[in-house]
């Protein structure tokens, strides 16, 4: 079922190859909608929830540079707003020549919910790379980091 072109639910998980292809296609479509007039670095993301939903988003730049939003965090915010809290994979499509991992801020935001998230990075020219989020952000600051001892 599709809801507003942003979310799909399936009763059964997709086969891994079909799931990966679907995520790549959705990330590429989101990248085409990116608003990047300052950097010309277009990014799309498709985030696969543990419930089978897919949330896609693109980067949105702003003349006041710190006010821009990365595609990965925009997808995460959209999924969280719908109640999805755990994720299996994210596909990131960029206009770069080489596959690009998420920036540090996006890594930190994503690791809060799914430390073992599979990251699939693709480019327009067909290059692809894959990582586990925990490999990209070892020794992450997490909710456990906030635990206090009463010594």
Specify Rg, calculated over alpha carbons. Answer: 15 Å
Biggest sheet record = 5 strands, mixed
Q: Which geometry do the CA atoms define?
A: globular
Q: Biggest sheet: strands side by side, in what order?
A: 4-3-5-6-7
Please state the oligomeric state of the protein chains shown.
single chain
Count of individual beta strands: 7
Q: Helicity range of the residues?
A: 25-40%
Query: H/E element string?
Result: EEHEEHEHEEH
User: Which percent range describes the beta-strand content?
Assistant: 15-25%
Number of helices: 4
Structural class: alpha+beta
Mean pLDDT: 90
Unreliable stretches (pLDDT < 50, length at least 5) are 1-12
- Give the terminus-to-terminus CA distance: 53 Å
Description of the structure:
- The chain is α+β, with helices and mostly antiparallel strands and 151 residues long.
- Helices cover 26% and strands 23% of the residues.
- It contains four helices and seven strands.
- It has helices at residues 16-31, 71-81, 104-111, 133-136, and strands at 2-3, 7-8, 43-49, 54-58, 87-94, 118-123, 128-132.
- Strands 4-3-5-6-7 form a five-stranded mixed β-sheet.
- The radius of gyration is 15 Å and the shape is globular.
């Amino acid at each position: 079922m599709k809801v507003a072109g942003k979310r799909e639910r399936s009763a059964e998980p997709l086969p891994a190859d079909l799931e990966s292809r679907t995520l790549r296609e959705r990330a590429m479509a989101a990248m085409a909608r990116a608003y990047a007039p300052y950097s010309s670095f277009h990014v799309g993301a498709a985030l696969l929830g543990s419930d089978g939903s897919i949330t896609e988003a693109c980067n949105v730049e702003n003349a006041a540079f710190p006010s821009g939003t990365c595609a990965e965090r925009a997808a995460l915010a959209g999924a969280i707003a719908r109640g999805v809290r755990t994720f299996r994979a994210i596909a990131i499509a960029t206009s770069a020549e080489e596959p690009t991992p998420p920036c540090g801020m996006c890594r930190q935001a994503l690791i809060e919910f799914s430390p073992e998230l599979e990251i699939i990075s693709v480019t327009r020219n067909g290059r692809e790379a894959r990582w586990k989020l925990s490999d990209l952000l070892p020794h992450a600051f997490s909710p456990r980091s906030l635990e206090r001892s009463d010594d």
